[in-house]
Design a protein that fits this description.
The protein is α/β, with parallel strands linked by helices. The chain has helices at 2-15, 22-44, 61-66, 80-89, 91-96, 131-141, 175-185, 202-211, and strands spanning 51-55, 72-77, 99-103, 116-121, 142-154, 188-193, 216-222.
Length: 225
């Protein structure tokens, strides 16, 4: 019973934030992930001609703070609380027609083939019911030459449990499994790196260590054709 209660609270706070605990995520996550978003933006090397999609965008902190480099930005999330915060954060760009925030499913992205040149998904893959379908959808909406930067768990997971769901309802990844998901979707030039969740922030890195997740597994791939 205690384990089920912990799982329910965790998923309602982190996996799919909703009232009342979801507001904690809306308030805390931008500060917690802000240094890491800078790492992701550097990997993407966004240019003025880019069209950027962030899957599981949360309150759109990445799009707001780094998407200004791109021509257009779009975010998708399943949490009404996060979507409301994201729309507030991107109000000016939405009004100008260079941003959109959509409620939807990562396994069925509501955009046409080749719509974007860059796709990110930070801390979302752990909660998707079908990670292969989600990665395949990211590939589909990328145009040739487009790149994806996706987090898939952390460096701490056990290879023997990769692909399974842990006690908190999160997907477990390992490097081999993460690479295979990207390659099976069609991505080439797949690389895996392990930057600290806190980026260059000592405070955020200390918090990540307390949680037992000091390093994120970041998988980058390119749609070659």
């Amino acid at each position: 019973m205690l384990k089920d209660w912990r799982k329910a609270v965790y998923l309602a706070t982190v996996g799919l934030p909703r009232a009342p605990t979801g507001w904690l995520t809306v308030m805390a996550m931008p500060s917690e992930h802000r240094p890491f978003y800078a790492v992701v933006a550097e990997m993407l090397d966004l240019q003025p001609e880019d069209d950027l999609l962030d899957v599981a965008c949360g309150s759109a902190t990445l799009l707001h703070e780094h998407g200004w480099r791109a021509r257009t930005v779009a975010g998708l999330d399943a949490s009404d609380i996060q979507l409301a915060a994201a729309r507030r954060r991107l109000t000016r760009r939405i009004d100008r027609g260079t941003a959109e925030i959509v409620k939807g499913d990562a396994g069925a992205l509501p955009w046409q083939d080749g719509r974007f040149s860059a796709v990110t998904c930070i801390a979302g893959m752990d909660f998707f019911p079908d990670p292969q379908k989600a990665v395949s959808e990211m590939y589909r909406v990328l145009r040739p030459g487009g790149r994806a930067v996706v987090t898939m768990g952390t460096a701490a997971e056990d290879v023997s449990t990769a692909g399974q769901i842990d006690a908190l309802g999160c997907r477990v990844f390992c490097e081999t499994y993460a690479r295979r998901l990207m390659q099976d979707a069609g991505f080439g030039d797949v690389t895996v790196s392990y930057p600290p969740w806190g980026g260059t922030s000592r405070v955020c890195n200390a918090i990540a260590r307390v949680w037992g997740y000091p390093e994120a597994r970041v998988v980058r791939g390119v749609r070659e054709s």
